[in-house]
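Sequence, please.
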């Protein structure tokens, strides 16, 4: 009898605890939503023609993005949360908490949100030229960006990150700086978007220990190895992104000279061989060689294996300017990651494997590689 009674009490207690947890979640959600404008579900349904496929402009980390037009004629980007995604709910709340009050020319503006039953939606300003991966990295691209456009894109991203890292209090680490998260307006000015993985970074701490999140090819070595997040992880990602903008090539594996390599790996090999201009996008028919070289070298400073050697984003802005001479004697090789499935083929073909060291990590299906100077 006693066992039966205790079992019954435990079940009642469990139900009460679950109720408290759900109530706490609802209160937290309500507090976040109150920070920003609330759109009605019907308003967004009408704006997107009932979320019609013809208005689909992308897919985010936790749902689909649609183009919409409000009754007053304002164009918007409507980011819907997948109803099955628990991670997406966390990202939804994080995004509202992080950028509802943040305004900067190089950050995508959050206009509001909508919660309607299981539907959770973020509403952003609409940017006409989509993302960098569509404009620059898609083989079917129709847009042709000259060097003036590309250098302005790099500088704009740098200014946006410097604002997040050094001007905002508390500071913000984006954690997912990549080509698909940089949107371009009608004049091809860049705006950093998708703050679902962002972390607030108080002034009085050196790092945050956190579960690794982000995109392979952009992840800093120390972050993946130890889960220790600092602003230098964003700096690393910026360096990779800059190489993509200059080269028109993806950071992912590509066959370079008969061997599969990451873009940052190939860039370093070309730098050592004094052939860095070979990296430049063939579509760039005319460009100032010295300036383009400086941008690529700044990218290599940003992707150095040791985080403490990477510059702050405010320093990156200075380094990208024409008035600063880079001290290349201080430049050390990058660290990067390889999917294990590529390692054997890549290393067997790649002559530079003799001057590199690799350490397989048990908790991740990737290998960390740091190039050693010859």
């Amino acid at each position: 009898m006693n066992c039966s009674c205790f079992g019954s009490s435990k079940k009642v207690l469990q139900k009460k605890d679950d109720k408290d947890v759900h109530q706490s979640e609802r209160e937290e959600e309500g507090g976040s939503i109150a920070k920003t404008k609330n759109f009605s579900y019907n308003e967004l349904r009408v704006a997107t023609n009932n979320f019609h496929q013809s208005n689909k402009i992308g897919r985010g980390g936790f749902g689909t993005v649609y183009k919409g037009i409000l009754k007053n004629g304002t164009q918007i980007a409507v980011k819907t949360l997948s109803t099955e995604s628990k991670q997406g709910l966390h990202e939804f709340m994080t995004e509202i908490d992080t950028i509802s009050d943040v305004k900067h020319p190089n950050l995508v503006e959050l206009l509001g949100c909508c919660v309607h039953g299981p539907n959770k939606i973020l509403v952003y300003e609409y940017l006409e030229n989509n993302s960098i991966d569509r404009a620059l990295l898609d083989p079917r691209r129709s847009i042709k960006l000259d060097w003036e456009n590309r250098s302005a894109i790099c500088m704009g991203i740098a200014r946006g990150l410097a604002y997040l890292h050094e001007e905002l209090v508390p500071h913000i680490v984006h954690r997912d700086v990549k080509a698909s998260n940089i949107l371009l307006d009608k004049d091809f000015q860049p705006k950093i978007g998708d703050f679902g993985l962002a972390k607030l970074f108080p002034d009085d701490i050196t790092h945050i220990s956190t579960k690794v999140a982000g995109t392979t090819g952009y992840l800093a070595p120390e972050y993946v190895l130890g889960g220790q997040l600092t602003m230098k992880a964003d700096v690393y990602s910026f360096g990779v992104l800059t190489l993509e903008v200059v080269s028109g090539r993806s950071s992912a594996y590509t066959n370079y000279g008969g061997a599969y390599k990451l873009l940052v790996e190939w860039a370093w090999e070309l730098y050592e061989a004094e052939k860095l201009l070979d990296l430049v996008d063939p579509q760039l028919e005319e460009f100032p060689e010295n300036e383009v070289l400086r941008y690529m070298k700044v990218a290599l400073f940003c992707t150095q294996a040791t985080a403490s050697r990477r510059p702050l984003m405010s320093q990156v802005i200075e380094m990208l300017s024409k008035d600063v001479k880079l001290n290349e004697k201080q430049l050390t090789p990058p660290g990067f990651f390889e999917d294990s499935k590529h390692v054997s083929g890549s290393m067997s073909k790649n002559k530079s494997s003799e001057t590199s060291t690799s350490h397989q990590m048990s908790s991740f299906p990737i290998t960390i590689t740091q190039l050693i100077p010859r």
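Residues 205 and 230 are 9 Å apart (CA to CA).
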